[in-house]
Design goal:
- With 123 residues, the protein is of the alpha+beta class.
- It has one domain.
- It is built from 2 helices and 5 strands, in the order H-E-E-E-H-E-E.
- A 5-stranded mixed beta barrel has the order 1-2-3-5-4.
- A hairpin with a 6-residue loop joins strand 2 and strand 3.
- The longest helix is centred in the N-terminal third of the chain and has 12 residues.
């Protein structure tokens, strides 16, 4: 692999700079997931996942709920700051990055968590 290709992969994987958050925090409900090279949030009513670059207090609440191993999912209502659209997270696979500023609720996921729930549009 050429040296320039390796450098490009490092930039995409590690990020060239810290995310720049825009606007006031928004309240959203959805699923926070931690997995191999993944820390993401999928808000109810949206198909895209956001890279969670700063989980704040959500990580401690996640650890209270997910007891078996390091990986899992919790249902959460959080206030987050979002970035403008771009390439974030592992290999730039996420359209936005999110920083959790307040945790309203975090619990084990249940069937129908997002039924009828809509999220504030971040577009």
């Amino acid at each position: 692999m050429k040296q320039s290709s390796v450098a490009a992969l490092l930039v995409l994987g590690l990020g060239a700079s810290a995310p720049a958050y825009q606007g006031d925090p928004v309240l959203v409900s959805g699923h926070y997931r931690v997995d191999w090279e993944e820390q993401s949030f999928r808000a109810c009513g949206r198909s895209e996942r956001w890279w969670v670059s700063d989980p704040g207090d959500l990580m401690a609440r996640y650890r209270d709920v997910v007891k078996d191993g390091d990986y899992g999912t919790v249902y959460a209502t959080v206030r987050v700051e979002l970035t403008e659209p771009g390439m974030y997270g592992h290999l730039g696979m996420y359209r936005r990055a999110a920083a959790v500023r307040e945790v309203v609720e975090a619990r084990a996921p249940r069937s129908g968590d997002c039924d009828g729930r809509r999220t504030i549009e971040a577009e």
